[in-house]
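User: Round two. Same drill as before: sequence, then structure, for each protein.

Assistant: Same drill it is. First protein:
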Amino acid sequence: MRMDESGVSPVIATILLIALTVVAVGIVAVFLTSISPGSPTVNTQVVLENWTSTSVTFYHRGGQTVNVSDLKLLKSGTEVTGATWEPSSGTWSVGQTLRISKSGMGITENDVITLVYKPANQQLFSENLRFWTG
């Protein structure tokens, strides 16, 4: 073994360790940048104020203001389309009611009524309807 070759092995090992670190950092960076942040949820308290066979009325009890266009109504798991929303646009905020009506909607006892915030597919309200008897 020649005297000038004694330092080659530690130099190569150092270069390999640096290369391995760069590759590991690259893999972590790609992984972290590929994660989507997800849809924002809302913190809103909703109660059912009233229901009939053709309409439901919700009351915004507290929490964040929601755009009416970001909501959908489900009746027993099926989206109710062609309904009239009051208010029909803008926002729904604390202290306001939201009425959704449709002729022939056919809401009956035991239907499950669900109000969904579409951007996050988040249930704001869901309940199996019952008639009140006093």
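Second protein:
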Amino acid sequence: MMAHESRTSFSRAHAPSRRLGGRTADNTERLFKATLEILDAQGMEGVSFASVGKLAGVNRSTLYRRWPNPAVLVVEAIAAQIEADVTVADTGTLRGDMRDTLTSLASFLQTSTGRAGLAAAASLAGDPEAAVALRALWVKRLSHLQQIFERAQSRREIPAGFDSEAFIATMSGALLFRLLIAADKPDTAWIERILDMSEVPITKTR
């Protein structure tokens, strides 16, 4: 269904939607809100430029101009919600920052929008334009989280060259395992256990 609504070349999927003030910003907020409401209620199958435009009160020609297909719109709407809801903590220690940031992420993933976002991400695996948008979301989020590790390096909690991307992927993956595989809530006590494991030295063997 969504493939029929794509009216741009693959290269345009690399270009982020413009974030301007005034009417454009207001339209963006309304479109993202409508997108997430439909996603929560109907899943990806319910999200189309027509349905989003109708609910938001925005002409769907606006959506065709700004997004290559509804899948990319969904990714950007979820990204905006993550940015609004998931706090990058500054507690004074790396462990405290990771604990509070992961707790904030876990709380978001357990909301209706978070759950719908996880389902949407899984369903978009075969969409090349959505894959570009998902990658851009990860890169942007990683850049926001990087400040945690820069502060930790300045406090000499971690060495220079510390692989922050692998560390974040490991911690985030643990959250997803807890939610999707173990079907349990990743509360603060559980997050503390995962952080304890990250401090255990593992000896390399040949």
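The first helix runs from residue 22 to 42.

User: Perfect.
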